[in-house]
Amino acid sequence: MSSNIRSLTLALAMFAVPATSFAQIGISITIAPPELPVYEQPVIPGDGYLWTPGYWAYGDEGYFWVPGTWVQPPSVGVLWTPGYWGWSDGVYAFNRGYWGPHIGFYGGVNYGYGYGGDGYSGGRWNNGSFAYNRAVNNVNISSIHNTYNETVVNNTTVNRVSFNGGSGGISARPTAAQQSFAHENHVAPTAAQTQHEQTARADPAQRDSVNHGHPAVTATARPGDFKASAAAAAKTPAENKAGEENKAAAENKAGAENKAAVENKAVTENKATAENKAATENKATAENKATAENKAGVENKAAAENKATAENKVPARAPAAAKRPAAVAQSHPAAPARTAQRSAPKPQAAPRPQAQPKPEAAPRPQAQARPQAPARPQAQAQARPAAPQARPQPTAQHEGKQEPEHH
Predict the structure, then answer these.
(1) Of 160, 201, 170, nearest in space to 67 by CA
(2) How far apart are the first and last CA of the chain?
(3) CA dist., res. 342 & res. 251, Å (int)
(4) In the chain, % of residues over pLDDT 90
(5) pLDDT tens per residue across span 152-184
(6) Segments of 82-227 assigned E as strands
(7) Nearest to 226 by CA among 25, 42, 379
């Protein structure tokens, strides 16, 4: 009874505080609040709504759960700082939430969905419109277009403790900036938020004494909407464990599938690389073979041209070589008489004009030089008549020698 009287006194003191500096302690008791239930955030009902996390409130029947809900703010540019329970001087006092230009201190309690214990990462005001972070909010992007995706790194210890200070409580303390935010003009919860809390108070299923920390409705899409179809039911520890196991299994399966996909991609890329390498090597081999064949062809062509040039060049010198047989043929019969050899060379000088084949060397491009080889018979025909003329002379000389007779 004394606890209820004390709570009522503090509540009256709270309502006496002006709305512009709305306040601080709403109620205080000696029993610590239960842990925060695990729940899923409903899909945002429309553009302009801001998320307000659920919390444990205290009434005549003890603690009851006020579901988290999407709320339209009282004005553009304000943000919601959640309420929290804090232990001080042997009692737990509830510091009510408020609207203001900045997110103030809310005990370091990790309410989730952008409220990780310090500040808010679920969205921000941008030129009069609120932009939602899809990384922490359940937003339907087909109807809500003012969104962004920003990963949130939560440095706060993740637990379900719902109060600050005391035995088992969170040890966070307000920063200098958060202390300054406490002196800004604050706006009390909207009428829709107040009605939402009253609806939860009147529902026995929301009381901790009935649900033992697992309220029937943990979150709603709009304030006061406690319908089963629109509300998110609290999960029991077994369901939470099963959900976590299913989530882990799904993540492991996704990880295995991703790993397999990466490995398959690597195998495909390696195969493609090997095929490209083989194709490149085959192409290089073909090009080298073609180069070798072209080189051989060029060398063969050059050899053929050199051979043809040599053959064209040789016939031009052949007629000059024909002089040697003529000289040899004439030397044998002339041996018996030295006088005949001296007189015989005069007719042998005739073959010299036949050395005229030199001008024929000019037609090298013409391969018709070979038919000129028959010039040899001409040299022999002209040389042979000279021999008969030389033969009679030794006969005359021999007859002259026979004139003296020895008697």
Answers:
(1) 201
(2) 202
(3) 124
(4) 46
(5) 876 555 689 999 999 999 999 999 999 999 999
(6) 84-88, 91-95, 98-100, 123-126, 129-133, 147-148, 163-164, 219-220
(7) 42
What's at 222, amino acid-wise? R
Number of neighbours of residue 44 by Cβ within 10 angstroms: 20
Give 282 or 86, the one with higher predicted confidence: 86
pLDDT tens per residue, range 312-341: 554 444 444 444 544 443 444 444 444 434
For 327, residues 6+ apart whose C-beta sits below 8 A from its C-beta are 348
Q: In a 3-state reduction of DSSP, which class is residue 245? A: helix
With CA atoms as reference, report the closest residue to 114 among 66, 67, 79. Answer: 79
Which three-class secondary structure state does DSSP give residue 207? Answer: strand
In this prediction, residue 149 carries a pLDDT of 95
Neighbours of 349 (CB within 10 A): 9
Q: Quick check: 50 and 73 in contact, CB under 8 A? A: yes
Nearest CA to 185 out of 85, 80, 97, 98 is that of 98
Burial 258-278 (b: 16+ CB within 10 A, else e): eeeeeeeeeeeeeeeeeeeee
Beta-strand pair 84-88/91-95: antiparallel
Contacts of 402 (CB under 8 A, 6+ apart): none
Q: At 387, which helix (H) or strand (E)?
A: helix 386-390
Q: How far is CA 214 from CA 24, 129, 283, in A?
A: 28, 36, 73
Q: How far, in whole angstroms, is CA 363 from its chain's centroid?
A: 70
d(CA 30, CA 107): 18
Q: Which two tokens stand for residue 93?
A: 């006092």
Residue 199 is predicted with a pLDDT of: 96
Q: Which of 172, 186, 199, 262 is nearest to 66 (CA)?
A: 199
Over range 58-85, report the average pLDDT. 97
Question: What pTM, to 2 d.p., does this model score?
Answer: 0.56
Distance of alpha carbon 157 from its chain centroid, rounded?
35
Residues 6+ apart with CB under 8 A from 282: none
SS3 (DSSP) at 10: helix
DSSP line for 140-181: -TTT--SEE-------S------EESSTT-B-----HHHHHH
Residue type, 175: T
Query: What is the rounded distance in angstroms from the CA atom of residue 258 to the CA atom of residue 12?
Result: 59
